[in-house]
Design goal:
The protein contains three helices and 59 strands. The chain is mainly beta. The strands form 14 sheets. Strands 37, 39, 40, 41, 42, 43, 45, 46 and 47 form a nine-stranded mixed beta sheet that branches. Strands 2, 4, 7, 8 and 9 form a five-stranded mixed beta sheet that branches.
């Protein structure tokens, strides 16, 4: 595909996603969790969330009700002081009353807010076995937050330049754990560098002498302290940001007490549906061995319970059911296509070696899973010929599925041998580390996926009878056009733009039938693409997109992809042509006529302003409205002749993907430009394509 065309399609996708982004955006939850079996009230901060009417969880045992917090414009202005680090993205607040059933397992769950015209992004909500303890602001060494009973989950947020203090009583010999969740609660902050809260944690005695300190736990940003208290005393736990930033999305939860904390579970790899015995290491565990059987293949998070208290979650990777796994082999075991190898580096073998049969011209592809499964290894793989010559070395390979990772330490080797021979694969830690927690899994592949697909938003809100859109992002390369398959849509729902025609992003629309019931249901999206054996399918993973440090965008995995059918809007927009057929436009054309149909409720008599989702110098649309007495409107998209000149000598001509948005009483921004996000009503047509021809 022409590179300029790719850029045009990608830029359109970025613009369209911002134009039709969900109207509700959450920046923080406080406190971001609660004790199992209790009811509590939390605060959510964000943008436009005061329009939320419903709380969505991905577990039926957690229920929530939303109550807007009324705050005047003058009060909002008063909160923003000189040198304040506050953000307009956190301007709105709502109160949420949450009840957690007694049978909900400990862990992190997805919380979203839903309003009349959309669903918010997801933020984690933690269910814990210990009660929340909420800080009071302006604490200090002389006036700390007094924690009367442990274990507890200390909840707070740091202010600019702020340091929070918590005082608790400890006895000599207590194995105290202080485990922070901060980045886990808000993975990325768009306007912060580094792009997350970077906590620093320490414990001091009554004389201010440091007992323990932590600013990271292995390769995790969130710190953990595990220490044995030296004497009976009043101890103070102190937390602040590493560079003393702060505001309400710099929030934290600190699990504090004589609580179970797992430092390792071995083996860390297994096969789905197959029972294995694991050795558990850590503190305050109660037992050192457990039998487990996981149902889900891939990455799992496992907790351990010591009586009432739940431990931290530890990673476990499961191969597909029925797979063969060789565990901790002795000697130079052969790595084949039929069996994966689970191993670790040891003091006696800081370099592990494996044999591989190589066939001339057939790629050797070996994937190592380590850091992605909680291992401390920063692995390097080397491939050696039968004569001992190093023919390939690989260190870090980015895994686009791991949206929460910013340091991709696991390598994937891809080498095509020049001759058939027995070769040697070496695995080593880049920093020469070793031990049980330097574990890894090796898998040999015949081929790797050429792309990964992501669907956002992970919750698609459709007004009954109306249309909504989602975006499919492609990481990698789709060499030829592909089709999207949507499973789970009820009868009567229609779609448009299911054929991906190029670029890194593609927009799809779903239209609900008039009178569709207000309900929520899961769907799945698959990419059907041509391969050597005909056609294959790949899952498009549901994600939420978050920005880090002003620039980087990450795909954050979501628990599910779901459609929420909301109450009907007072009007609906449609098109009078087959949206699956391209509108062909020549360079001689001056305008593109598009007929828009409107279906109004009987009592709705507002003019509807129309605009294109795609804006550029190439295509423009003058302001136009559908008046109350009209049931259709022909709009005329203008082609800029000067801008089209540059395509005359090109082999590939552009394809524009777009739809039409209709708004009622949209707010006016600076320079007279409308904003569609804050309109009273906002509806869209299905997506269609305009193709330029010679």
């Amino acid at each position: 595909m022409n590179s300029r065309k790719i850029i045009l399609v990608a830029l359109f996708a970025i613009f369209a996603s911002s134009l039709y982004a969900q109207k509700l955006s959450m920046g923080y939850l406080y406190p971001a969790g609660g004790e199992v079996g209790t009811t509590l009230e939390i605060e959510a901060g964000g943008l436009n969330i005061n329009k939320a009417t419903k709380v969505l969880f991905n577990h039926p045992g957690i229920k929530g009700e939303v109550e807007p917090v009324k705050e005047s414009a003058s009060a909002k202005r008063a909160r923003r002081k000189l040198n304040d680090q506050s953000s307009p993205q956190l301007a709105d607040k709502v109160k949420i009353r949450i009840s957690i059933a007694a049978n909900v397992p400990c862990g992190l769950y997805d919380l979203r807010l839903q309003g009349a015209n959309g669903v918010s992004n997801m933020l984690p909500f933690e269910v814990s076995s210990s009660p929340n303890f909420l800080e009071s602001k302006h604490s200090s060494m002389g006036k700390p937050n007094m924690v009367d009973a442990l274990p507890a989950v200390l909840c707070g947020y740091v202010t600019p330049g702020g340091v929070d203090h918590f005082r608790f009583k400890g006895r000599a010999g207590d194995n105290i754990v202080a485990s922070v969740k901060a980045r886990q609660l808000v993975p990325y902050i768009a306007d912060a560098v580094p792009g997350w809260f970077q906590p620093v944690l320490k414990i001091v005695d009554s004389r201010g002498r440091e007992v323990a300190y932590s600013d990271d736990y292995h390769h995790n940003v969130d710190p953990v302290i595990i220490t044995t208290l030296p004497k009976d005393d009043d101890y103070t736990l102190i937390i602040h940001d590493a560079i003393f930033r702060g505001r309400q999305d710099f929030n934290y939860r600190i699990h504090l007490g004589i609580i179970p904390f797992v430092t390792g579970r071995y083996p860390a790899y297994g096969v789905a549906e197959k029972r294995i015995e694991q050795q558990i290491e850590g503190v305050n565990l109660g037992k050192s061995k457990v039998n487990i059987k996981v149902k889900k293949e891939g990455y799992n998070l496992l907790t351990h319970t010591n009586g009432k208290e739940c431990s931290n979650a530890v990673s476990f990777y499961a191969l597909p059911r029925g797979s063969k796994l060789i565990e901790y082999p002795e000697g130079e075991t052969k790595l084949t296509f039929t069996a994966a190898i689970a191993d670790s580096l040891t003091a006696n073998a800081k370099i592990k070696r494996y044999k591989i049969n190589a066939t001339e011209g057939s790629p050797i592809i070996v994937e190592l899973i380590g850091r992605r499964n909680g291992s401390r290894i920063d692995a390097v793989m080397r491939l050696k010929s039968s004569s001992g010559e190093v023919v390939a070395t690989v260190d870090d390979t980015e895994d686009p599925i791991q949206g929460l990772m910013t340091f991709h330490a696991d390598p994937i080797l891809n080498y095509t041998p020049l001759q058939s021979e027995e070769m040697t694969l070496e695995v080593e830690d880049l920093h020469r580390g070793y031990g049980k927690d330097y574990h890894y899994l090796l898998k040999r592949h015949r081929q790797l996926p050429s792309f990964h697909a992501f669907v956002s938003p992970a919750n698609i809100a459709i007004p009954s009878g109306g249309t909504a859109a989602f975006r499919v992002d492609i990481s990698g390369q789709l060499k030829r056009p592909a089709n999207l398959v949507i499973n789970g849509l009820p009868k009567g729902f229609t779609t448009s733009s299911l054929r991906i025609r190029g670029g890194k992003s593609w927009n799809v629309s779903i239209t609900a039938p008039k009178g569709a019931a207000v309900e929520r249901f899961p769907i799945e999206v698959k990419v059907e693409y041509p391969d050597n054996d005909g056609r294959a399918q790949a899952d498009a993973l549901p994600v939420d997109n978050m920005m880090q440090a002003f620039y980087y965008t990450h795909h954050i995995p979501a628990a599910e992809l779901a459609v929420d059918v909301a109450e009907a809007s007072p009007f609906r927009l449609s098109l009078d042509f087959d949206v699956e057929k391209d509108i062909m436009v020549s360079m001689r054309d001056e305008v593109i006529p598009i007929k828009i149909l409107i279906d109004r409720n009987k009592d709705f008599n507002e003019p509807v302003e129309l605009a294109m989702s795609y804006r550029s110098k190439l295509l423009t649309l003058e302001p136009v409205s559908i008046l109350p007495e009209e049931n259709e409107k022909t709009i005329y998209i203008k082609l800029d002749k000067t801008s089209l000149e540059r395509f005359k000598k090109r082999k590939s001509l552009p394809l524009w993907q777009m739809n039409i948005v209709g708004t009622v009483k949209g707010e006016v921004e600076r320079q007279g430009k409308r904003t569609f996000q804050n309109a009273k009503y906002r509806e869209i047509t299905p997506y269609f394509q305009i193709k330029l021809k010679r």
